[in-house]
Write a structure and sequence with these properties.
This protein is of the alpha/beta class. About 20% of the residues lie in helices and about 35% in strands. Helix 5 packs parallel to helix 6. Bound molecules: flavin-adenine dinucleotide.
Length: about 250
């Protein structure tokens, strides 16, 4: 059941170019949160709409989000300091389904954070992640700690293999048997990863990060076509079976 809570910030860190992490002490939220769910964060008094940010990790009572500065809301968030209070609504959305066997988690850019918790909660996981360049690379040590292997690609070749993450996914699916591919990232990346998984006959679930209004299914801002019907990313998603998304 989603709740609105005022939570103290226990850690605020710069991670990479324009990318920050914030950890809050949120026992009730942490207890309920599932990998792939998100929180809707009130970003200052000036902004009416909360901003949706995926849950990156839950460790005891601590809940961490990782975000990139895009506009006014995330800029405000990046200036939050330890000891300040953050107003969170969550946990929201459905999250990734749990598979008993080995999964391949796939993240692109700022879609990597929710894949950390997803990998951590899996019975067994490998990861393929892609970034624009080394400057935006995040959470690699964390993923290495919870995954059997972590393959990295970058658009400019400054870290890992030059190219897109879907090429790494194709190689991983050819080399190893997986129960599922679980992915989060930009829509074109998700579409390619879904196609690669489909041709390898592996179930694939994708987290869609559409622009969002209310976060609880009351408005239609985040509508997305799935199986020929409009669905709310915030309430019915953000995770959908890739085969059902009308790409
Ligand atoms: C379910 C969900 C989970 C998300 N998880 C994360 C996360 O873990 N980390 C993270 O950094 N971001 C995440 N996002 C995106 C994040 O919500 C937006 O970047 C943020 O709301 C932008 O707010 P702003 O006030 O800074 O920028 P705004 O002034 O609102 O917008 C600035 C720019 O960002 C673009 N933008 C706004 N919302 C989105 C969006 N949802 N997707 C893509 N572009 C957007 C706008 O079109 C505009 O160009 C998530 C979004 C959703 C829907």
């Amino acid at each position: 059941m989603p709740m609105t809570l005022n939570c103290p910030v226990t850690e605020a860190q710069w991670l990479a170019e324009d990318i920050f992490s914030i950890t809050v002490d949120a026992p009730k939220l942490a207890q309920q949160a599932k990998p792939g769910q998100f929180v809707n964060i009130k970003c200052g008094e000036g902004l009416l709409l909360r901003r949706p940010i995926s849950i990156c990790s839950v460790e005891g009572d601590a809940l961490t989000v990782v975000f990139q500065v895009k506009g006014e809301g995330t800029r405000w968030l990046s200036q939050c300091q330890t000891g300040e209070m953050l107003d969170l609504l969550g946990p929201l959305g459905n999250g990734f389904p749990h598979f008993p066997g080995r999964v391949l988690v796939v993240g692109g850019g700022i879609g990597v954070p929710p894949m950390y918790d997803t990998a951590k909660s899996a019975t067994s996981a490998d990861a393929c992640v892609g970034f624009r360049s080394e400057k935006q690379a995040i959470l690699l040590d964390e993923l290495k700690a919870v995954c059997g292997s972590v393959a990295v690609a970058s658009d400019d070749g400054s870290i890992g293999r030059r190219g897109f993450v879907d090429a790494l996914v194709k190689e991983s699916l050819a080399a190893q048997t997986y129960d599922a591919v679980l992915a989060c990232g930009p829509r074109p990346m998700l579409k390619s990863v879904a196609a690669v998984a489909a041709s390898a006959n592996v179930p694939c679930y994708v987290s869609m990060e559409e622009r969002m209004g209310c976060g609880v299914g009351a408005c239609l801002v985040c509508a997305c076509s799935v199986g020929g019907h409009y669905r709310h990313v915030c309430k019915d998603g953000p995770v959908f079976a890739a085969g059902e998304v009308d790409w």
